[in-house]
Design a protein that fits this description.
The complex is a heterodimer of chains A (103) and B (810). Chain A is an alpha+beta fold. Chain A has helices spanning 25-31, 33-40, 44-48, 58-74, 91-101; strands at 10-14, 20-24, 50-52. Helix content of chain A is 47%, strand content 13%. In chain A, strand 1 (10-14) and strand 2 form a beta hairpin. Chain A is globular. Chain A starts with 9 loop residues before the first strand and ends with a helix. Classes of the chains: A alpha+beta (103), B alpha+beta (810). The A-B interface holds A 33-34, 37-38, 41-47, 51-55, 59, 63, 87-93, 96, 100, 102 and B 1-4, 8-11, 13-14, 43-49, 51-53, 56, 110-111, 114-115, 117-118, 121.
Amino acid sequence: MSDDEAEDVYVKLISAEGNEIFLEKRVAIAGSETMKAMLEGQFKESEQNLIRFPDIAGHILEKVVRYMHYKVKYSNATGRIPEFPIEPEIALELLVASNYLNC
Amino acid sequence: MADKGKKFTIKPFRTYVQMDQQGASQIWNSLADAIDEIHNRNASSLSFEELYRNAYNLVLHKHGALLYEGVADKLSSHLLRTVERLARAEDGTLLEEVSHAWSEHRITMVMVRDILMYMDRTYVQQNRHRRPVYELGLHLFRVTVWEHDRVQPRVTELLLRAIASERAGLLTDDRTLLKSNLGMLLELGSADGSNVYERDFESLFLGTTQEFYRLESLDYLSRNTASDYVTKARSRIEEERNRAAALGLPPTTEAPLGNIVETELIERHARTLVAMENSGFAALLRDETKLGELADMYDLFVRVPGSVDHLRDALAERVKSDGRGLVSDQERGAADPPAFVRGVLRMRERYGLVVERAFRGEKKAARRLKESFEDFLNADARAASCLAVYVDELLRSGLKGADEPAVNAELNKVIVVFRYLSDKDVFEAFYKQHLARRLLGGRSVSDEAERAMVSQLKAECGYQFTSKLEGMFNDMRISRDTRDAYKQHKKTLAQAGAAGASIGRGGDAGSSKGNAGAGAGATSSSSPSAQQAKPVDIEVDVLTAGYWPSQNVPSCTLPPSVTAAVSRFQDFYLQKHTGRKLSWQTSTGTAELRATFGSSPDKLRRHDLSVSTYQMCILILFNDSPKLTLRQIRTATGVPDAELRRHLISLCTPRHRILRKGSKGKAIAGDDDTFAFNPDYSSKYKRVRVPLVSMKETGGASSALGAGAGGDGAAGLASAAAGGGAAGAGGAVPANVEEDRRHLVEAAVVRIMKARKALHHNDLIAEASRQLSVRFVPSPQFVKKRIESLIEREYLERDDGDRRVYVYVA
C-alpha cells in the first residue's frame, strides 16, 4: 500500500501473523465502531496510529479492511449497490471478527 | 484466497481457550489495574485493543457478571475517595472542586465505556436490569458523591447564594462554574432517572426567585414612580433571561422562571401601576406629552396578557369621563354645539393617537375607544343635533377658502364622530333642515363642500340615506333652470306691458319658495289710495314635497299685486308640467318693499325694507288704513296667530319701529291691541333688514333656533308647526323622527316575518335590531310595542302552541 506522509492520515493494522495493513484513518473510523473508539480514545493506539490484532488472522483482517472500504464507499449512494463477495470458507471467522470489531 | 473448488471446509477455529474462574479473575485483575490507570490519566500507556479484547473474552466466556460487578466496585471505590476529598474542601473552593471532579469522572467514564463496549452491546442488553456502563458511572457518581451530606446541601446553598448576589448587583466571579455544576445536575438526573436537578436546584431556585422579586417589587414601587418601575422591571426581566441562557438552564426551567418574574413584577402590581397618583397609567393619560411612557408601560404589560385589561379599562374610563365633561359643559350652556363637537373631535384625535402609539395600534384597545365614545355620545340624542349644527356651521362659513383636501379632511373627522352615533336618523333629520335652510338662503360656502359631505354620508350609510338630500340638490338646480325659462317667458310677454317688479314670495309643498326678488313693490303709506297696480316681480324655487322638510302651514292671504304675479308664474309652470300641484309656502321667503316715511311731503325718506313674507303682508295692509287692530290684521292676512304676533312685534321693536303698538310693554296685549304706521321711522341705512325676534320673546310655544336665524327671512322654517320641531331643550328625539322610527320598525318587522313566516320573539327582536342599526338602535321594548300594535292590526299573530313565537298572517 502506500506510505504515511501526513502524520495522522493512515493507521497500521497488524494481524495475528504479523501482516501489516495500512488503512486511512477516516475509513477505519467510519467503518468500525471499535476502531473508532480505539483511535479516538487517549490510548496507546491513537498515539502511535498502530493497532495490533493478535486474535485475527491476516486474510480475515484483509477481508475486513476491504469491507470497510466498501462500506464507506457506498454509504450514501443511491441506486444499485454491487454485492460484496464473501467466500463461504472464511465466513465463520469473518463473523467472529466482525462481531469483535462491530462493523 | 483459499478456494478449493466446490468442496469447502470450514477451517477449525482457533484453539478454544477454556476460561475457568481463576483465568477469569486474572483477566479481570488486569482490567482493574487498567481502570486505575485510566483514572490516573495514564491511558496512553495502555493498549486499547488489549483491554477491549480482555473484556470481550470475559463476556464471551460467560463471565459478564463478574466483569460488571467488578467495574461497579472499582468505580465506587474511586468515587468514595473523591467524595472524601470534597467533603473536606472549604466552601470557597467547593464549587470548583466539584466541577473538576465531575469533569474528571466523565472523561474516565468515556474511556471505560469504550473499552467495555462489547459488554454494553451484549451482556447489558441481555440483562435488562443492568445499566449501561456510562449511565452506571453517572449513577454511582450521584449516589456516592452528590448525595453526600457534606456535598449536596453546601453546593445547593452556594449556587443559590451566587445567584442572589448577582441579583443584588454584586459581580460573580465566574458563571461558567455555575453552569458546569448545573450541567452536572442535569446529566445526573437524566442518567438514572432521578430528578436531582429539579429536587436539589430548580424548585429551590424558583422559590427564592419568587420571594426575591416579590419583596423587591413592593419595595421599589413604594419608593419610585410608575415609569421608573417599568424601566426597572424591564431590565430585571432582561437580566433573568440572560442569566438563564448563560447558566444553561433547560427550557423547562426557563418557562416557569419567566412566568414567576412576570407574575411578581407585573401581574401583582398591575392595578397599582395603573392607579398610582401622578405617575400611574391613568394619570399619564391626562398628559398629552407622555405617550412614550405610556407605550413603555404597555410593552411591559403585554407580557402578561391579562393585565392589559387594566390599561384598557383606564383608557375607557378616561375617555368616558372626558366625554361626560364635555356633555355637561354643553348642557350648562358653557359651550355651544359647535364647540362641543370640536371638543369631541379633538378628543378623538388625541385618544386615537394614544391608541396608535401607546397601545401600538392594538385592536382591542381601538375597540374599547370606540365603545367609550359611543357610550357618552349616545347618552341622549343631543350629540346628533350638535353634530348637525356643527356641520351646518362648517358648510356655512367654516370651510371658507379651504381647498379640497382640507375640506375632505374636516368632513372625514365629522364622519368619524357620525359613526359613533346610534341615532343616525336624528342626525339626518336635523341635517336636512339645516341643508334646506342653507340651500334656500343661498348660504352654503361652496357647492363642492356640500356634495362632498353628502357623498361621504352615502359611502357611510348607503344610498337610501342620502337619496332625499340629493333630491334637494336636484330641486335647486331645476329651479334655477325654471327661473331662467320663466324670465325668457316674461320677456316674450313684455309686449303685453306687464313687466315690472314683483315681489318674491315663498311657495311650497311641491313648490316654490320665493327668494328675494329684485325690484321694489311700491308701497307708500302717505297716499292711502295709491293702490298702484304695478306688477310685482317674483323669483320662485320649486321644491319637491317628499324631499324637503315638511311644512304644513296653510298659505296666508297675499296682497293683490303679489297674487297676480303668483298666478302668472303658476300658469307658466303648470303649462310646462301638467298634472302637478303647486302650493305656496308663505311661511318662508323674503320681500323687498320700498317705503316712504316722513310727515311732510318735502321731507320724504325712502327706505328699502327687506322683510319676510308675512311682514310684507302686514305692512301692505297699512297702505289702506293707517291703524289696525290685531284682529283685523289677522283676518286680513290669514297668518297663524303665533307667527303673526312674532312678526308684528319685530316690526315694533325700538330699533325698527315701523309700526307703533298701542299697548305698553313688549308683549301684545290682546286682539284689540292697535298698530299704527309710524311715519317718523328713520334709519341711517337706505336699505334696512328687519330681523325677526325669537319665539321665546313672543311667548310662543316651541323654541326657535334663535334670532340669528331670523335674519334671512327663510327662518320661516322654524315655524310653530308640529312638523318642524327644532332641537328641544334636552336631547330628546324630535317628534317626527320618533314617528318615522315607529314606521321603520313596523316595516322591518313585517318584512322579516313575511320572509320567515314564523319566528321566536327573541330572534325577531334581534333580527329587527340588526337591520335597523344602520339608522338607529331601537330598544327591545320599543320593538315589542310595535309588534303588539301589529298584532292588533292583524299583521301578525301569536302561535297557538308557543306563545313566544309569532306567525305571519298573509
